[in-house]
Specification:
The chain is elongated. It starts with 7 loop residues before the first helix and ends in a 12-residue tail after the last helix. The protein has twelve helices and no strands.
């Protein structure tokens, strides 16, 4: 007996239960979390298939043509985008793919709301700006710091007001989905859609910022699904001019350029080189210590300093002692005698005080 097809309501409720369970889970890298996330995405995708199959929404209808019970199904694409952002990826390329799928889900959600004229005036203006340039979209278009600050504060206040309003509605008996006032329940659904719309524009801006960062990420040298030959071919295609910043270039490319010129005309090195004049000099310095070793002893150093006249000798008590005269050295005695006679003659020719011509007593 074949299994009966499930209704949109039952599939949507099962998807909502999975999503709510994931919101309280913090182990995003656990296998159980990834499995539950995949199941929730499958359930929402099934909701999309059922909606398209029964043609629940049409571009020829207005908001008043949608029944109150069908309003929550407008959020299916938003929930898909919300879950796609939580997918764990292993490389920048995988993350870019996930962000692209998230952007497409956000766009489907906004286009659906725009067809039913559900977007507010401010949201409709933001949607127009997004369609003009999706990659450069920002909720704050001005570059003035003060204006950007005021716009951020306004966005925060709007989000806080919508949260507070939703929290009040969800706890009030008047807005209960079962047994509540239909107009109140409809207002609850529309308020939730307005809150999700606000978060959608925030999410699109966040995607653009993250894509800018991912654009600066380096290309992985060895993707998991490629071989060594594929990786080498991809690097050659990235550097068609033959120049590479890598230090560990393949050995065959190093040997091929070993006999050519050292530098190109632009100053780029074409082959490895060593800044030394003697290869044996490098070999001798392999096992040397990191500090400089002494080249002479202390005695040799002092002798060299004394030879250069850098050491002052004498001074102290020894400098005031008169050497004993050598009576056997006649020449030295005559020199000392002549020196004493000259000093006596100088004192007789220049009596004491004779030079004081300005302050005589």
């Amino acid at each position: 007996m074949s299994e009966e097809p499930r209704t949109l309501k039952s599939v949507f409720q099962a998807a909502e239960l999975k999503r709510i369970a994931l919101e309280g889970t913090y182990e995003a890298n656990s296998p159980t979390y990834r499995e539950d996330l995949a199941q929730a995405l499958e359930l929402y995708q099934e909701c999309v298939q059922i909606i398209n199959k029964i043609s629940l929404f049409s571009s020829n209808e207005g908001l008043e043509d949608i029944s109150t019970s069908d309003l929550p199904y407008l959020l299916v694409n938003y929930r898909i985008a919300e879950l796609l952002q939580k997918i764990s990826t292993q490389s920048p390329l995988e993350r870019k793919t996930a962000l692209k799928s998230t952007r497409e889900a956000y766009e489907r959600f906004l286009h659906l709301l725009d067809n039913y004229s559900i977007l507010s005036q401010s949201d409709s203006k933001l949607f127009t700006e997004y369609n003009d340039d999706p990659a450069a979209f920002s909720t704050i278009s001005t570059s003035d710091p003060a204006a950007r600050r005021n716009a951020k504060i306004a966005n925060f206040k709007t989000e806080k007001e919508l949260k507070t309003k939703l929290a009040y509605m969800q706890t009030s008996p008047r807005y209960l989905e079962d047994g509540g006032d239909e107009e109140a329940v409809r207002e609850l659904y529309l308020t939730n859609i307005a809150f999700c719309t606000h978060l959608t524009f925030q999410g699109l801006e966040s995607i653009n910022r993250e894509m800018e960062i991912l654009a600066q990420a380096p290309i992985p040298l060895m993707p998991q699904a490629t071989t060594v030959q594929d990786d080498e071919r991809r690097r050659r295609e990235a550097h068609t001019d033959g120049y590479s910043e890598r230090l560990d270039r393949p050995l065959n490319s190093l040997l091929a350029n070993s006999s050519g010129p050292l530098l190109s005309r632009e100053g780029k090195p074409l082959r490895p080189f060593t800044l030394t004049s003697n290869r044996q000099e490098l070999q001798r310095g392999v096992f040397r210590p990191g500090h400089n070793l002494p080249t002479m002893s202390i005695d040799e150093y002092l002798e060299e300093e004394r030879r250069q006249g850098n050491i002052i000798e004498g001074g102290g008590e020894a400098s005031g002692r008169q050497p004993e005269p050598d009576e056997d050295n006649i020449e030295k005695a005559d020199v000392e005698t002549m020196k004493a006679r000259e000093w006596d003659e100088f004192k007789e020719a220049n009596p004491r005080g004779s030079g004081n011509t300005l302050n005589r007593g």
